[in-house]
């Protein structure tokens, strides 16, 4: 049933998968923003945000239980059938239950029915909820079984199938959110059907095999984690709902596009970082203790600050060009949001360092409370600032709530696993940003892509030169990187002599 675990292999497969999804996102996003008008893109974004909320509720934390109790299912065929049946049929039932409650609320809301386009998309949400709940559990089974390659293939094929559907809509001249939602669900249904066929073929699902004791045990284990997951989702999504309420679908589309671009940049940084950090700090904590873990995370944090400052400067410089290039001219005017949202998401990314102490000490309840407080701040600030400051108020509320969350984590983590940023390296990065920023602003071209790439290349070059000059840590890192180059590569920092290499003299 399961395969022998290979940690390095699995990490590699998951990294390839996440990287592929990010790259495909940079294809589907421009496609969507060119197929859909601004207000339709906003409707699409809000629809899938609500779907995500319902999926979290539908799973009831059972995806965590799938990993926690998997070993107990491997004793015999009956145990396997009981495990898979319980943790697949159970979430399917709860997804139908929450979908029914959702539909009752939807039809009782006269305000939602007045926006016909949004209402029609929201009617399709329950189908997406059931499909995504099932797929989440099916993917958790693949992770448990050590089938990381198949896990990656399923995720990528879901995205590719959806993209094919979007291209078909573009060719057919469909420019509304409703057909996009329908095409997305059709693509996901095809993949889920294939996955379900595999599970049924193996004889792992039968309604009579449901173990209600396992459901109770799983809910007891997983429910506390829902508070964290749900509040994280509210922290990330509440602004979209409030923007739509106060400013309508067009403004929602502008804000959603800017947030999507910012989110892609965050994923580029956080995905490999998360995959790389977790196994290292867990090994250090278990084998070398607190001090070694703190040193490693402090060093990683210092270099992340450098990368975050670089991305913040680059996004501020290229915000307008990047928005038009990725999202088309119809979204022009939202570039100011990028200058707030990108730094906000870089601040949010710091939590992967400062929540480590709580994770290692298994204090997930405190972690959930911190996120709940930050989500409450986000909602309150959005209600206060959107009516007064519009979309910039929503962006500022996002920045504030992420700063509150990370600031609280820093204070709490200080007594558990204190981390320190290298001040010399951080100051060098700030100075490099300030020195590198002005010159690229003088680069102009009639071709948008030339101007975008020219400014990005100039900023990156200037930033690297400045920090190389000012930071001895950066210079040491560069020298180490060149030292690790494959044999035969010529390093500009050190040319090997014939005596060192053993070449020459024989002739």
Automatic annotation (TrEMBL):
Identification of the protein by name: Membrane protein involved in the export of O-antigen and teichoic acid
Transmembrane annotation, as ranges: 12-31, 43-62, 83-105, 117-141, 303-328, 340-359, 366-385, 391-412, 424-443, 449-470
Source organism of this protein record: Terriglobus roseus
Membrane topology per record: Multi-pass membrane protein
GO CC list: plasma membrane
Location of the protein in the cell: Cell membrane
Keywords annotated in UniProt: Cell membrane, Membrane, Transmembrane, Transmembrane helix
Family annotation (InterPro entries): Poly_Biosynth_Transport, Polysacc_synth
